[in-house]
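Lab notebook, bench 4. Still working through the backlog of constructs that have no structural model yet. Next entry is a single chain of 300 residues. Request: give me the structure tokens for it.
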Amino acid sequence: MAIRADAASAVARPHDSGPEMGAAARQDPARARQRPLPEPKPLTEHGPARIIALCNQKGGVGKTTSTINLGAALTEYGRRVLLIDLDPQGALSVGLGIPAQNMDRTIYNALMERKTTLADVRVHTDIPRLDLVPSNIDLSAAEVQLVSEVAREQTLLRVLADVRNEYDYILIDCQPSLGLLTVNALTAAQGVIIPLECEFFSLRGVALLVDTIDKVKERLNPSLEISGILATMYDTRTVHCREVFSRVVEAFDDTVFQTVIQRTVRFPETTVAGQPITTWAPTSTGAAAYRDLAKEVLAL
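Model written out:
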């Protein structure tokens, strides 16, 4: 799906809510977009994986939560999934109950040591068919060390090649910045999912992110496409939230997933539990939303 940078800039500019926007905000624009989703077909064989980066330079918009729960939901449809923690804070690892801070080898070693592969550092999670490449604070050094490397932007793409045929999806949880690690993720990926909090200030970074994606597509990775924008922290009770969502849909149309992730206390609980919401609260609205998102991703 293509997104024009000028559209991204336009949606981020403040403007008065006219009568049409006000009418849309009084309703629930997310519910109005709901359509039946096709049931995913079972697979007869696995791989090579489709690589998707979950990216937004603004922190706290649900990247890690979406990576974990989308990955877990995809496994429920029989897909083999590898999650890559590409954030030195290691939130993805923590969210799956993996004590990455105490591990001797992480994604950092796979990126910086020629003799270490992803297969050497990946770990199995408690979720069947879901594996993780963990991260910890060591990864912060890679941003500096990669600068002097030859073909530095392709480092992650190179190490992913060893395991790509073992999985159906590889999901990369990017750090909240547009640095060299994020460029590595975009260079390796075929698709980008942009989690976007339904709040005005979150819109302002979309133009910069889309511009970065366009540059990576032009110079490093011609096959890179935006898979979709995922509205997160959606609260139907607030006019502001509904207005922001309406503006995003107005600007980006079908590039916005019809699935929205609503605010719920269940997500902080899952972080403490170290489990996806699909296993911690399998009948919750949050779990149902990520299963719907998985259906949309599988239909792309």
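Notes after review: The chain has a mean pLDDT of 88. The beta strands are 50-54, 81-86, 123-124, 130-133, 169-174, 191-197, 225-234, 256-262. Flag for follow-up if needed.
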